[in-house]
Amino acid sequence: MPISQKAQYAVRAVFELAKRQGAGATKIGEIAEAQAIPQRFLENILNSLKGGGFVESVRGKDGGYLLARPAKELTVGAVLRFVEGPLAPVECMAGNKKGSCPMYGGCPFLSLWARAEKALEGVYDSTTFYELVAQEAEERRKPAVDFTI
Amino acid sequence: MPISQKAQYAVRAVFELAKRQGAGATKIGEIAEAQAIPQRFLENILNSLKGGGFVESVRGKDGGYLLARPAKELTVGAVLRFVEGPLAPVECMAGNKKGSCPMYGGCPFLSLWARAEKALEGVYDSTTFYELVAQEAEERRKPAVDFTI
DNA sequence: CACTGTCTCTACCGATTAAATCGAGATTAA
DNA sequence: TTAATCTCGATTTAATCGGTAGAGACAGTG
Hints:
The structure is a homodimer of 149-residue chains.
Chain A: H1 5-19, H2 28-35, H3 39-51, E1 55-58, E2 64-67, H4 76-84, H5 110-124, H6 129-141
Antiparallel strand pairs in A: 1-2
Helix pairs in contact in A: 1-2, 1-3, 1-4, 1-6, 2-3
Chain B binds a DNA duplex (30 and 30 nucleotides) through residues 4-6, 27-29, 38, 40-41, 43-44, 46-47, 50, 57-65.
C-alpha cells in the first residue's frame, strides 16, 4: 500500500532541485548524494521526469538538471501521479481498468474508496515544493520536532 | 500503492458477514461466491481474521464463520490495518522500521506523510461495516449512481 | 463407532513487480 | 581530443502477490 521507493526518490530529487532553483544545473551525482539515492537508479528517474516536463537537462560537461517550472507551481501530487499513476486507493478506481471488478455496478465500497482518494488528493495536490523548501528552511532554524509516539 | 487484493477480499468478507449477522454461521463457500473471492484463498484470509479477533468460526457440519463483534463497532480501518499493517503512506512512517530512512531526523516530507496518513485514517476509521451494510440496502432501493466520467 | 462436511495449518508455486545495475552511446565545454 | 555529463535500453536480482495443495483436526449425525 505504501508509496514506492522510486516515487519517493522522485519527489526527493525534485525537492533537491527546488532548493537549488536559480543556481544553474545540478549534477545527478550531487542530487544522489544529497538525497541518498542510488545514482544509477536516479538517472532513470530523472530522465523519466524530464519526459513528464518536470525537469530539464543540460548535457555535456557542466551539465545537469534543472526544475522546469517554478517550485510554486509544482505539487507533490503531480509528481506522484506521474510516477505512480492515479492516487486511487484501489485498482478498480484507476480509470484504465474500470469494469475489471466483479462487483462493478453495485460495489458497496465505491463511495468509500472515492472518499479516501479525495482525502489523499487534498493533501498531495495542495502541497507545493516551494512550501516544502520554505518549511525545511524554517525547521532548520528551530529545534526539530520529534514525531515519535 | 493501492490496497492489496487480499485486503479487499478481507473487507468484502467481513462485509458479507456483517450483512448476515444474526443468521448463524456462514460457510466459506457462500462468502466466496457472494463476494467473488477464490475460495481457497479466502480460507487463509478468514483464518487470519479469526486470529485478529474479527470473526469467529464454527467447525464441523453446519459450521462456518460469524462476525465476532457488532458491525457497528467494526471499522474498515481496523480490518485494513490488520491485514496490511499501518495505514502509513510510506515505509518509514510504519513504526517498526523507523530509523531505516537515511533522511531520518530532518526529513522535509515527514509532516506531509503524516498529514496524508491522518487523512486516510480519518476516512477508514470513521466507517463502520454497519454503515456500509445500511448504505448498500439504501442504494438497492434507488437507482445506482454512475461514477463513470 | 464411522462417516461426512467443515474449518485449520503449513507449505509451496508461478508470475509479476520493484529496485537496482550495467554498458555503450551521444553531447558539450574546455 | 579529452573528460565530464546525460541518454537509453537491457539485464539482473530479490521480494511480493495472488493463489493452490494436501494432510489433519474437529463436530455433528446415524
